[in-house]
């Protein structure tokens, strides 16, 4: 057995196994390649017993891009599991997202049956300051009052002789 210093070792000095999928390159290097090379080949033109709509210019629909990117990333992760990965991907990810995307009445492509139609964005008014400054409804520290400091929060003691972890603040 090689004593390679780059090999991670457990507490007993044994080499730790590589995490599953850690060294595996992605099957598709972009969302576009995932859609063109995989989805377009496996999706029927008719979905679920009725015609599901699709738009050749799917990338012009922000809601479709968001869902398809989620499908692509979950596919890359779950396809590394040789046992149930793809079954999980289809039943827990692809089927629900594709049903929403391709619904002929309310899906992202519902207006594109005869060709691409630019979707209109939802009308939105800015939220009032009382909402955007509320500490429970923002991840930023721009709400009134001083931000909590790490030294103000009590820290649990670490194991004997080990340093106490320092909390990390994210802006």
Strand content: under 5%
Mean pLDDT: 77
The shape is: flat
Count of DSSP E strands? 2
Oligomer: single chain
Q: Kindly name the structural category.
A: mainly alpha
Short précis:
The chain has 171 residues and is mainly alpha-helical. Helices cover 30% and strands 2% of the residues.
Description:
This protein has about 170 residues and is mostly helical. It is about 30% helix and about 0% strand. It contains 4 helices and 2 strands, in the order H-E-E-H-H-H. It has helices at about 30-40, 60-80, 85-100, 130; strands at about 45, 50. Strands 1-2 form a two-stranded antiparallel ribbon. A hairpin with a 2-residue loop joins strand 1 and strand 2. Helix 2 (about 60-80) runs antiparallel to helix 3 (about 85-100). The longest helix has 18 residues, at about 85-100. The chain is flat. The model is unreliable at about 150-160 and about 160-170 (pLDDT under 50).
Characteristics of this structure?
single chain, 171 residues, mainly alpha, 4 helices, 2 strands, disordered C terminus
Question: Helix and strand layout, with pairings?
Answer:
Elements: H1 31-42, E1 46-47, E2 50-51, H2 62-78, H3 85-102, H4 129-132
Antiparallel strand pairs: 1-2
Helix pairs in contact: 2-3
């Amino acid at each position: 057995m090689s004593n390679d210093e780059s090999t991670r070792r457990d507490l007993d000095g044994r080499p730790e196994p590589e995490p599953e999928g850690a060294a595996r390159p992605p099957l598709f290097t972009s969302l576009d390649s995932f859609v063109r090379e995989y989805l377009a080949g496996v999706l029927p033109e008719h979905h679920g017993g009725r015609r599901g709509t699709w738009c050749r210019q799917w990338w012009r629909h922000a809601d479709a891009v968001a869902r398809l990117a989620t499908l692509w990333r979950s596919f890359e992760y779950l396809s590394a599991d040789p046992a149930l990965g793809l079954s999980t991907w289809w039943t827990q990810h692809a089927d629900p997202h594709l049903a929403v995307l391709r619904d002929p009445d309310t899906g992202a492509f519902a207006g594109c049956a005869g060709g691409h139609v630019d979707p209109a964005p939802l009308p939105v008014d800015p939220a009032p300051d009382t909402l955007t400054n509320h500490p429970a409804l923002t991840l930023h520290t721009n709400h009134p009052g001083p931000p909590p400091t790490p030294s103000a929060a009590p820290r649990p003691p670490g194991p004997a002789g080990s340093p106490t972890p320092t909390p990390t603040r994210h802006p």
